[in-house]
Write a structure and sequence with these properties.
This protein has 363 residues and is an all-alpha fold. It contains eight helices and no strands. The longest helix is centred in the C-terminal third of the chain and has 126 residues, at 222-347. The two termini are 26 Å apart.
């Protein structure tokens, strides 16, 4: 029996190769007979049938072969099912990975583009802010110079008023001395100094006084003295009022400058802080863009690798499926041959002599 199993296997292989062509038994036997081992099988079968040996052994062997084929198919189905589940999981994981990389590429591209736009805006604003700072500093310098000029003018004019008031006071003292009876000769030196100082000022206010003092120098009389004293009092009062007006103007300009300079300094501080913020942002934008570009390159490579892996897995799955279908088809054909042989042995044993006759004719 052990020897008959490989013989039947050979028969199945030969018959399977001919099933699709629907060859006649004579043609099938002719193909088997070409092989020396097949020739021996036919001899054994012929002897088995000629001597009336039990056909049941052959039937048992055919049943075993059919059972083995069915068992092999079940194992193949189980492996195929397991491979299909594993493949589907691998495909799902790869598709999820591809979707992730695609999402990352879109996000990184958007980040790169939006950050590049923000970088351009920040660089443009830095140029504007830098110009604003320069204008602010120029305005501060110009206004500060104007304020300094105003203050120096006030100091000069205030000093002139003090000198003029001193000259008026000195003139008043001299006139009062003359009124008290002091000889003009004793006061002449002081008189000439005061007169010269008043003439140096070239102020229109002093012109009537200078004329009156000049007349007084040539002729001292009480009436002229009273008139001059009144004029001196009026002039001093005007000088005091003028000096007060100048002081009020100086104080007002100083207060205005304090407010204006405060605004300019606050604006300068704000602009400097804004520039520092923008410059820091520019550095961060450049770092972000560089990192986004590098990450984008990495994600692109990851995506390509995942797509390649998916293609390889799909090709492998297709090959496995094709191999599985081919092997399944082959087993189905073999089972069909086994079933036909079983049919011959169980239902057509009366045709045994016909087979022998066919073999005799072939040989």
């Amino acid at each position: 029996m052990a020897r008959i199993i490989p013989i039947l296997t050979l028969i199945l292989a030969v018959v399977t190769a001919r099933v699709a062509k629907s060859e006649s038994p004579k043609e099938v036997l002719a193909q088997i007979n070409k092989d020396s081992f097949g020739n021996s099988v036919l001899s054994v079968l012929q002897l088995q049938l000629a001597t009336g040996g039990p056909v049941g052994e052959i039937q048992i062997l055919l049943n075993n072969i059919a059972s083995q084929l069915n068992g092999d198919q079940k194992k193949a189905d189980k492996v195929h099912e397991s491979d299909t589940v594993a493949f589907e999981k691998i495909i799902a994981d790869l598709e999820q990975e591809i979707a992730y990389h695609q999402t990352q590429i879109v996000a990184l591209s958007n980040l790169r583009d939006s950050t590049t736009e923000a970088l351009g805006e920040a660089e443009a604003e830095v140029r504007v802010v830098t110009s604003d700072i320069a204008n602010n500093e120029k305005s501060f310098a110009d206004e500060s110079a104007t304020r300094q000029s105003q203050h120096e003018t006030w100091v000069r004019k205030d000093a002139e008023h003090v000198d003029q008031m001193d000259a008026i006071d000195e003139a008043s003292k001299i006139v009062q001395h003359l009124q008290a009876g002091v000889a003009f000769a004793q006061l002449k030196s002081r008189f000439e100094k005061v007169q010269a100082k008043l003439m140096e000022s070239k102020h229109a206010l002093f012109k009537p006084l200078i004329n009156a003092l000049t007349q007084l120098a040539s002729k001292v009389d009480n009436k002229s003295i009273i008139k001059i004293l009144e004029l001196l009092a009026q002039i001093r009062q005007q000088l005091v009022a003028s000096r007060a007006s100048l002081l009020a103007t100086e104080e007002r300009q100083a207060a205005n400058w304090e407010v204006q300079s405060g605004h300019l300094q606050e604006e300068h501080k704000r602009l400097v802080e804004r520039k520092a913020f923008l410059e820091n942002s520019i550095v961060q934008f450049k770092v972000t863009i560089q990192e986004a570009v590098e990450d984008l390159e990495d994600q692109t490579l990851f995506l390509e690798d995942a797509e390649d892996s998916l293609e390889i897995q799909e090709r492998w799955a297709a090959e496995q499926e094709s191999q599985y279908e081919a092997q399944t088809f082959e087993r189905e054909q073999q089972l069909e041959v086994v079933e036909r042989l079983q049919e011959v042995l169980t239902q057509k044993m009366s045709a045994a002599s016909e087979f022998l006759e066919i073999r005799e004719e072939v040989f």
